[in-house]
Amino acid sequence: MAQTRLHFTAGKIEADRIFAALDAAFEDEGLPLAVLEVDEDRDIHEVSLYADGDVDAVEARLKDILAGLALTKPIERETLPEIDWVARSLEGLKPVRAGRFFVHGAHDRDRRHSGDLAIEIEAGLAFGTGHHGTTAGCLEMLEKVVRRERPRNALDLGTGSAVLAIALARLAHIPVLATDIDPVAVKVAAANARLNHVKALVETVTAPGFHHPIFGRRAPFDLIVANILARPLMRLAPEMAKHIRLGGSLVLSGILDRQRDAVVSAYVGQSFRHVRTLHREGWVTIHLKR
C-alpha cells in the first residue's frame, strides 16, 4: 500500500513541541514521524507524518493536535510510491574513492583494488557512508595529515557510522576513540569497526560533546576529527583546545562554504592556526593546528 506524507514547516522550538505531541498521539498506530532541518540559518524545520489507510482521518487528527498547541499550519500531502527500499538503498550506495580510501557496501567487495584502504559500510545504517561531501573531504584530508604528522592517539567526535574512525585505524594503526551522542549510532559504529577488523583499535562510546570520563583517561589527543555541524563546532572550540595536545591537529567538517570564516575565527580565538581548507560539493573540510 502506498504511503502519504503529511508535512509542514516550523521553527525548531515549535517543531520539537509538535513532534513530541504527535509521537504521543500516534504511538499506538506506530505511524512514522520525522523532523528535518531545511535551513539552519533561517530556522526552518520540516515535520513529516507518514500515513496509510484513511489519510483524511489522520490529517484531521493532526490538525486537532496542532490546534491544541494553539498552532495553525498549512499541511501538504505527498503520495509516496511503493518501493523496495532495501534494494533501492543498495542500488544507490555506489563505491566512493577519496585518496587511498575506497568506501563501499558488501555488494561491491569485488571492486576493491590492490592497495586500497577499503572500508565496508552497510547501506542505510547511520550517517556517514563516505558519499556525503563532508565525509569524503575528511577522508582526503586525514590521509594528508596522518602521512605528515604520524599521530599516536586520535578522537573521532560525532562518529556516526565510524567511517572516519575506521579510516584512521586502518591508515595509522593507532587507537581511536569514536564517540557520538546517539546510542544507536554508537552500536552501528561498533558493528562497522568489527566488520572492518579494527575493533581492537576503535573504542566506541556514547557521549555528548566532551562530557564523559573516557576523555579524562584518553586525552590529550594528537588528532581530533569532527564531522558534525558548524554551530556545534564553534561552541566546542574551548573544549577542543583543552583536549588536544600542543602541536596537535584538528580536522573539522560539516561546514558550508559560507560558514568557513566564522568557524576558523572561533578556533583562532582558542590559539589554533589555520593550515588548509578543502572545498567539496559546497562544503569545506578545515585543518587547524594547536
TrEMBL record:
Single GO term (MF): methyltransferase activity
Major site of localization recorded for this protein: cytoplasm
Entry-linked InterPro entries: Ribosomal_L11_MeTrfase_PrmA, Ribosomal_PrmA_MeTrfase, SAM-dependent_MTases_sf
Reactions catalysed: L-lysyl-[protein] + 3 S-adenosyl-L-methionine = N(6),N(6),N(6)-trimethyl-L-lysyl-[protein] + 3 S-adenosyl-L-homocysteine + 3 H(+)
Listed GO biological process terms: methylation
Positions of S-adenosyl-L-methionine binding: T135, G158, D180, N227
Compartments (UniProt record): Cytoplasm
GO-annotated cellular components: ribosome
Keyword entries, A-Z: Cytoplasm, Methyltransferase, Ribonucleoprotein, Ribosomal protein, S-adenosyl-L-methionine, Transferase
EC number: 2.1.1.-
EC main group: transferase
Task of the protein: Methylates ribosomal protein L11.
Protein family (similarity comment): Belongs to the methyltransferase superfamily. PrmA family.
Protein's name in the database: Ribosomal protein L11 methyltransferase
Source species: Mesorhizobium abyssinicae
Biological classification of the source: Bacteria, Pseudomonadati, Pseudomonadota, Alphaproteobacteria, Hyphomicrobiales
